[in-house]
Amino acid sequence: MSYIVPSEFVSKMVDAGESKIFMATRDALIRAYMAGAILALSAVFAVTVTVQTGSPILGAALFPVGFCILYLMGFDLLTGVFVLTPLALFEKRPGVTLKGILRHWGLIFIGNFLGALTVALLMAIVFTYGFATPPSKVGEVISHIGENRTLGYKEYGAAGMLTIFVRGMLCNWMVSLGVVGAMISTTVGGKVIAMWMPIMLFFAMGFEHSVVNMFLFPSALIMGGKFSIMDYLLWNELPTVLGNLIGGISMTGLTLYTTHLKTGPRRSYN
């Protein structure tokens, strides 16, 4: 698999974060748009497999195919840049500022959302034969996902909000490990295996991924889901984004950076 040791791939993480911050606006938007669209298609695929087979674990096992494709193509997810770009600031790379990082996050959010929304519209046409029929079985399932993961949380108030946030943290702990996985091998096979494992875990466990949700919830609303845009934003997307940010940078970015790049002094044997 041509494995790269942590001390080397963490340096690659910092370099990647720095390069993304200075990326042209056009390139950032295109890469984010394609990432959102491909991940949305992967979510459709996973739900379709689950409906056809009655096996959610099989859908989860196959969902990572989209994640692997988009990272092999060099596209960007919001959850990935949450982890990589702050490392360039921690490392005090020249010209890297908090303002630049926030600007880049904003561009990736917009691009991811537009890509996911495009697929939501296209798949709604597919699921309803151009809005001439009620949604297919897969479309119905997606609509219920939207309802259950907005109104279902809202029903529990503050406890529901906490649950969304924690699920968002746990999600990007795993997803960010998948992002790192793309850097720990010099072969396609090695990269795919390293990315596949944590992505399958997050999907199977039902954690909350902000970009996947950019497809699921607008798609559900288009096909008649019984919740509002404000329900989606307040009771899923915004707390999920915050959870993804905190989970990714604290549980993956900072831990790898601290122990492999800013290694503590060796213990004395005296």
From TrEMBL:
Say if the entry is tagged with keyword Ion transport. no
Q: Which UniProt keywords apply?
A: Membrane, Transmembrane, Transmembrane helix
Q: Which residues cross the membrane?
A: 28-51, 57-84, 105-131, 241-259
Q: Which GO terms describe its cellular component?
A: plasma membrane
Record's bilayer topology term: Multi-pass membrane protein
Coiled coil ranges (UniProt) are none
**InterPro entries found in the cross-reference section:** Aquaporin-like (IPR023271), For/NO2_transpt (IPR000292)
What GO molecular functions are on record for this protein?
formate transmembrane transporter activity
Against Pfam families, the record matches this protein to:
Form_Nir_trans
**Where is it localised?**
Membrane
Chief subcellular location equals membrane
Name the protein family: Belongs to the FNT transporter (TC 1.A.16) family.
Concerning PANTHER family, the annotation shows: FORMATE TRANSPORTER-RELATED, FORMATE_NITRATE FAMILY TRANSPORTER (EUROFUNG)
Q: What is this protein called?
A: Formate transporter
Organism source for this protein? Achromobacter aloeverae
